[in-house]
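Hi there, hope your week has been kind to you so far. Thanks so much in advance, here it is.
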Amino acid sequence: MTFRDSNRAQKDEKIKDVLNFMLSIKGIYKVKLLNEQEKKYILELEEQAEKKVLMGLMPGVNQGVRDALSRNFTAAAITQNEFEWPKKGLIRIVHDNEVLGEDVRDQEELEKLKREGYKVIANYIVIYKYDRLKELGGFKNTTLVVASLDLAWTREVPHSCRVVVGSPSLPADIFIKKIMGIETESGFGSILVGFDLIL
């Protein structure tokens, strides 16, 4: 066995450990390491979806997916209902790095914010700076940013650094399910996990 073969075998073993770790996460059903062609196509789907955010009223960027795809390795994961999503901060409405609002999925926190007088749209997007939003002329001068998912387990992935998790748009989700053999109407979701290996 040559040094190069040994290095490749070691890298393959570490990737296998990462994928097995992901499968051990509650709510993750299936994982697949994406090849460069699949990553490129998912990015194209995201770019198309970003142009259509909120019926064209607000431009958007799926930063979490972009970050996941920018890593040396990206795995797609199929999620089940048990998967634990962040309680807030996945979706942000911003203007020049100023956060005007964000999603809040914790019902108690959402009710508290409503009582404090914050505006809520779409049942879970809290607008913290409504007056500022009006000053800007509404949503057309803001950007919808889909951030990476802040999940504790990303700091525990073996042999990895710069781990980031993104939530793909519907077209990318459908493509991911297709290449993983999952029915699109199955009730499953998907995420992308980007990582760099520590060699």
The chain has one domain: 3-197. The mean pLDDT is 92. The chain is about 35% helix and 30% strand.
